[in-house]
Amino acid sequence: MTDAFGASRVQIRPPERGVFPLDHDGECKDNMGRYLACLKENHNDAFPCRVLSKAYLQCRMDRDLMAKEEMSKLGLDDNQTYVRVEANEGTKETSGFVAGLGVRPSSKWLGNGPAKSH
Fold first, then answer.
1. Residue 103: phi, psi to the nearest 5?
2. What's the distance, CA 84 to chain centroid?
């Protein structure tokens, strides 16, 4: 967008939902550190660290570092029932499945077929 004199004007938009300022003053650094330590201790499984996650987000909301939102909308409601579903990843591999084993190679890619002249 340009004005009458040919100078470009920047159109300012509010940040998108989920985008929030950094904690430059470290106001919630302790909460963040406890949460990250919990994640590390639990091999990046966030489920056991829910209470720490809630405390960290509440700290950010209290200090206007993010929009105030109900914890239920963030998936951290105390009244909800959480059911852990175990991942069945790797079940084929434990029974002997090998990826790509049943794929037949194409002769045109291996160069075994007859040469075509143009």
1. -85, 125
2. 19
In 3D space, the residue among 16, 92, 27 whose CA is nearest the CA of residue 61 turns out to be 27
The reply to whether the predicted model has a pTM over 0.85 is no
With contact defined as beta carbons under 8 Å apart, do 20 and 27 qualify?
no
Beta bridge partners of 8: 2
What is the C-alpha to C-alpha distance for residues 56 and 99, in angstroms, rounded to an integer? 42
Is the pLDDT at 7 greater than 90? The verdict is no
- 73 residue type, one letter: K
74, 26, 73: which is closest to 53 by C-alpha? Answer: 74
Judge residue 34's burial from the number of C-beta atoms within 10 Å of its C-beta, 0-12 exposed, 13-18 middle, 19 or more buried.
middle
113: helix, strand or coil? coil
Distances from the Cα of 63 to the Cα of 7, 11, 38, 58, 109, angstroms: 38, 28, 23, 9, 61
